[in-house]
Amino acid sequence: LLSIYQAGHVGDQLAVIHRGEITKMARECTLYSDRVIVKYGFAGRVLLGPKGAPGTVTMAVNIRVAGAQQNTLATDKMNVTTTIPPNTPAGYFSMVREIAFPVTIGTRPEDYKIFVAFERNVADAG
Hints:
single chain; 126 residues; mainly beta; four-stranded antiparallel beta sheet; three-stranded antiparallel beta sheet; 7 strands; elongated; disordered C terminus
């Protein structure tokens, strides 16, 4: 969840321009002797806030693969774009991509985690 506010009004719920939500995620893993390739997908929506207006909204999304020690093994970054039509409170988006990362002998599948999150900008996000 990421809320975008009017400049200077972070935290004021009446100043929300729009709010992004990642609502679904899925993955499909292919294991090789030295690496894993993960086909991952996510979907979500962007809701208009009290200060929002219909139109195109683009939000940055970061992906991070972490190992057992929470060390970063791979990253990906992209923008998701949706259009919020007039007289509609939300626009929807979905994305499917692949990411690969090395595996260490002796580790278990549950040792690896994939995080998908909106990029947060302290100046305008809450």
